[in-house]
């Protein structure tokens, strides 16, 4: 279960368990759903679950990824950065480059957590969103 900090009127932060288990779905704004579907399916390699009415749903681990045009003008902005976890970062980068991905940097260590190194490489999707592939070593 996820726990969140809530600021109470008393000025104290308390941990509340709201029953949140995980992220179920993440939406990514796109400009061209067909073009984006090809990228996420053929370049990143996510399994396409289904498409309907201009929406495309992919499976990404336990979460679904939704690609869609922004519903309203206030939602028309780049998506959050998604970090796709992989086992072999360098191999994934090579495969994605061969499939047409444009990387904006090379795999590099971004930090350490104890004995674990966090490595990432950032890329752009066909819609101008920046994402990353990451691994923990």
Summarize the structure.
The chain has helices spanning about 35-45, 90-100; strands spanning about 5, 15, 25-30, 50, 55-60, 65-70, 85, 100-105, 110-115, 115-125, 130-135. The protein is α+β, with helices and mostly antiparallel strands.
Output the keywords:
single chain, 137 residues, alpha+beta, 2,3-Dihydroxybiphenyl 1,2-Dioxygenase, domain 1, 5-stranded mixed beta sheet, 4-stranded mixed beta sheet, 2 helices, globular
Written account of the structure:
The chain has 137 residues and is α+β, with helices and mostly antiparallel strands. The protein has one domain (23-136): 2,3-Dihydroxybiphenyl 1,2-Dioxygenase, domain 1 (Roll), CATH 3.10.180.10. Helix content is 15%, strand content 43%. It contains two helices and eleven strands, in the order βββαββββαββββ. The chain has helices at residues 33-43, 89-98, and strands spanning 3-7, 13-17, 25-29, 48-52, 55-60, 63-68, 83-85, 102-103, 108-113, 116-124, 130-136. The strands form three sheets. Strands 7, 8, 9, 10 and 11 form a five-stranded mixed sheet that branches. β9 and β10 (116-124) form a beta hairpin. The model has no long low-confidence stretch (mean pLDDT 87).
């Amino acid at each position: 279960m996820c726990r969140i900090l809530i600021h109470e009127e008393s000025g104290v932060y308390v941990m509340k368990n709201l029953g949140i288990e995980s992220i179920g779905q993440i939406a990514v704004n796109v400009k061209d759903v067909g073009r984006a579907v090809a990228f996420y399916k053929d370049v990143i390699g996510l399994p396409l679950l289904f498409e309907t009415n201009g929406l495309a749903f992919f499976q990404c681990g336990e979460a679904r990824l939704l690609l869609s045009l922004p519903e309203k003008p206030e939602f028309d902005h780049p998506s959050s950065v998604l970090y796709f976890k992989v086992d072999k970062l360098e191999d994934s980068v090579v495969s994605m480059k061969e499939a047409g991905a444009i990387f904006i940097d090379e795999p590099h260590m971004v930090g350490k957590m104890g004995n674990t190194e966090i490595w990432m490489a950032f890329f752009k999707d066909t819609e101008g969103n920046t994402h990353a592939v990451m691994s923990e070593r």
